[in-house]
Amino acid sequence: MIDYLGDLFEGLLVTFQLSFTALGIGLILGLAAALARIYGNKPASYLANTYIELIRGTPLTVQLFIVYFGLPSLGILFSPTFSAIVALGINSGAYQAEYFRGAIESIGGGQMEAALSLGMSRFQAIVRIILPQALRLALPSWSNEAAYLPKYSSVAFLVTVPELLARSKMVISQNLKPLEVYLVVGLIYLVSIATISKILDMVYERYKFTVE
Amino acid sequence: MTKVVSVRDVWKHYGKIKVVRGVSFDVDEGTTTVIFGPSGAGKSTLLRCINMLHPPDRGTVFLRDIDLMKTGSKMNYYRSKFGMVFQHFNLFSHMTVLDNVMIGPRVVKKISRDQAKAIALEAIEKVRMKDWCSHYPSQLSGGQKQRVGIARALAMDPEVILLDEPTSALDPELIGEVLQTMLDLAKEKKTMICVTHEMGFAKAVASEMIFMDEGAVVETGSSEHFFTNPVNERTKRFLSRLTELYGRHETRNDIVADKK
């Protein structure tokens, strides 16, 4: 059994690479979209809203296929791994935007008012007052996203990225033990995600605070 | 006396609803102006027009000789000349008391950490919250929160302090400590514009009182005027309602009377 664990762990590394990069891209997109929706002017808010609804209303697989199989016909050609990261990042951003929006809205207008009345600019108020609170408040639901992504990233095997699930299929084609291998793969996902959740819980405990 | 604030025919509407309808008045340096009136009279909105948090739709506000409607991109800078104290405190929940008071000088005035800390500590001491510097807002009582709110405004060394019903959200037994702090400020000749129904406070320190209803000024005058012979029918009715609710203005303000 030990002989193929090395292969699977290589796959796990690719899975981590996919999901953490996508999580980071999604964080930036999600924050930008949430801020645009709440504080942006009409066009910005509309654009953000369209992005969120479009992505949340279509399957991740379709989004991935558009990036990998569709864009080349426009002359845009990405490697399988890059396509997967782009699709997962854009997808995650739409969900993260909603987590951040919820958090920002739960802070309430009084904090912004207080910051502005001290003489802060809107930008300073967002950076110094709103975001530090919103990020902490969003953390529990954001942890969901961090736990989903390593699992969702398994769709990348459809575009030949050698991530964990793709590796397991290769292993099975050699040793013909699907039950055993898939159980092991399931366990690897389980342990990885439990670890991520635990770490994020600890971060949350460290930074949580009570909203006024 | 020097005028610090001149409110000139300020109008504000939200959609079709006219919240403030042509309000004008002046505030002299070192005086306290009390604005009172029924809820929905536009008092809070007026305060927010004064510091350009919600710039008026018509009319303007002068801070000394500066027309605040014409300050353009410097509006944030001039807004920092007004301290604001809120009914619901609006302390920054993720910051300690000290950081709440420090952040204005730090971020807006770009003062060094040490200097900002010294300024903040002085303001915190003034509201008697020195022992609570490292506490978070959620660990404080309402009265303590409001005193920190006042310290946060003071730390910016504002020309005028705007107070928006600073005691309305407090339990009765906590009102006194906040009123006391406000009295201290009045005694120090800070210029204040205060929306409040604490008539004892008004009686003790207000040099001018403004009664507002339905977005407009109904009657203005000294506290003496309001408590002895208010002219307008609506003013009389409102004052007698306040008396019914809170008792005579004298009784509620032992705290105020003592310290005069």
Write a short abstract of this structure.
Chain A has helices spanning 5-39, 42-56, 60-70, 80-107, 109-117, 122-152, 164-175, 178-207.
Please give the order of strands in the largest beta sheet of chain B: 6-7-8-3-9-10
Backbone shape of chain A: flat
Subunit organisation of the chains: heterodimer
Helix count of chain B equals: 10
What's the end-to-end separation of chain A, in Å? 55 Å
- Mean pLDDT across the residues of chain B is 93
Q: What can be said about the biggest beta sheet of chain A?
A: none
Number of helices of chain A: 8
What do you see in this structure?
The complex is a heterodimer of chains A (212) and B (260). Chain A is an all-alpha fold and 212 residues long. In chain A, 81% of the residues lie in helices and 0% in strands. Chain A has eight helices and no strands. Chain A has helices spanning 5-39, 42-56, 60-70, 80-107, 109-117, 122-152, 164-175, 178-207. In chain A, helix 1 (5-39) runs antiparallel to helix 2 (42-56) and helix 2 (42-56) packs across helix 4 (80-107). Chain A starts with a helix and ends in a 5-residue tail after the last helix. In chain B, strands 6-7-8-3-9-10 form a six-stranded mixed beta sheet, with helices on both faces. A four-stranded antiparallel beta sheet of chain B has the order 2-1-4-5, covered by helices on one side. The chains are: A mainly alpha (212), B alpha/beta (260). At the A-B interface, helix 5 and helix 6 of A face helix 2, strand 6 and helix 3 of B.
Distinctive features:
heterodimer, A: 212 residues, mainly alpha, B: 260 residues, alpha/beta, six-stranded mixed β-sheet, four-stranded antiparallel β-sheet, 10 strands, disordered C terminus
Walk me through the topology.
The complex is a heterodimer of chains A (212) and B (260).
Chain A: H1 5-39, H2 42-56, H3 60-70, H4 80-107, H5 109-117, H6 122-152, H7 164-175, H8 178-207
Helix pairs in contact in A: 1-2, 1-4, 1-6, 1-7, 2-4, 3-4, 4-6, 5-6, 6-8, 7-8
Chain B: E1 3-14, E2 17-28, E3 32-36, H1 43-50, E4 58-63, E5 66-67, H2 75-79, E6 82-85, H3 97-108, H4 113-126, H5 142-154, E7 160-164, H6 172-187, E8 191-195, H7 199-205, E9 206-213, E10 216-221, H8 223-228, H9 233-246, H10 254-258
Parallel strand pairs in B: 3-8, 3-9, 6-7, 7-8
Antiparallel strand pairs in B: 1-2, 1-4, 4-5, 9-10
Helix pairs in contact in B: 3-4, 3-5, 4-5, 5-6
